[in-house]
Structure formats: structure tokens, C-alpha cells
Amino acid sequence: MTLAETLRAQLEATAHIPAPLAGDMTMPDSDPIVPAAVLVAITDRPEPGLILTRRNEALRKHPGQIAFAGGRADPTDIDPADTALREANEEIGIPRDAVTIVGSDAPYRTVTNFSIVPIIGVVPPDLLLRPREFEVADIFEVPLAFVLDPANQQRKEAEFRGAMRRYYEILWQDRRIWGATAAMIVNLTRRLAA
Predict the structure, then answer these.
(1) CA pair distance 178, 99, nearest whole angstrom
(2) For 99-143, how does the pLDDT look when each residue is reduced to its tens digit (9 = 90+)?
(3) Is 0.85 topped by the overall pTM?
(4) Which residues have CB under 8 Å from 94's CB, separation 6+?
(5) What is the 8-class DSSP label of residue 167?
(6) How many angstroms separate the Cα of 45 from the Cα of each of 28, 97, 111, 143?
(7) Is residue 44 helix, strand or coil?
(8) What CA–CA distances, in Å, run from 130 to 53, 77, 98, 119?
């Protein structure tokens, strides 16, 4: 069985398991929800990896944070998978036809009212990736087994906009994966580790 087939079967078998983290549901109903999607790109290796980016420090929103390639849906996008594939191609140069989509996970709502659909896809190892420099400062791969290990997913708490908020943090080498990205990884853990 290929990695894509294995992941697809695991996602289908665990589709009934609810996401432990839905995100921030405190936004007023009057605030419009912004549809978005990210590509959870898993490299097809004997020890699969997860492709992540570090956002450019000059960005107005979330500068320097670790993230999946992805973003806001465009009106011309067909569905969340189309959004994730378009954004991953624009941000880091992953060719659409190099991705085998194996499924998706529950949407995650951010404190900025984005509803992000994680699209899980398998990509060949060692793709030549090119960061869109004004948006992406760095592209790196972290071992999938490491980020999916609950022992590496630390629960934290901090004040944000006058309220205490809980979040997850995953430390790998000199990288701090936290916030929405870590939450989506925690959600994926319950599907792939079940």
C-alpha cells in the first residue's frame, strides 16, 4: 500500500472522530467568516515529513510564525482543495499535479475569524520548492512522527486581547510551531494515531 493509500484509509476510518480543537468561537455572529484552506503536505518518504513555512518578518499579520502553505479562498476557487493547491503553488512552488489529495480535516477557526480547512496531501520527496520571498522567509520539513507525537504537543496559556487563551506549542530544533498550525496538527493526530 502506498503512503497516500494508507493515509486515505486512516482518514476515512477516523472520519467519525470529532476534532478536539475547533478554534475560537467567540467572534460575534455579525463578523463575516473568511473561508481559507491550507495544504498539509506530507512527503512520501520511508519516514514521512511535513512541509512547513516560516512567514516573512515584514508581514503585517503573523510575522515570522510557522505555518502551512495556504490562505484565503479566492472567488474563483472551486473548493477548499483548490484554494490549498493554488496557495501552496503561489507561496512555495508546489506544482498542483505533484500533490495527491488524500482527505481533509475539520475546519479550524482563528481569532481573526478565518475558517481554515486543512487539506491533507502527499507530495514527492525533495521537490524543488521556491519561497515567495515577500510572504515566505523559509521552507522546511519536520518529521511527521515527531509533530504527531502527543508528547511533543505542549499545552500553553497566554493573555490575548484581554483574555487568557490556551494554545498548543510544538518545539522542533530551533522552530516554534504554535497557534492555529499546532492546533491543526493536534487535530490531525487524533485521526492518524487512532
Answers:
(1) 25
(2) 999 999 999 998 888 899 999 999 999 899 988 776 777 899 999
(3) yes
(4) 39, 41, 51, 69, 85, 88, 123, 127, 129
(5) E
(6) 44, 18, 35, 10
(7) coil
(8) 11, 22, 14, 20
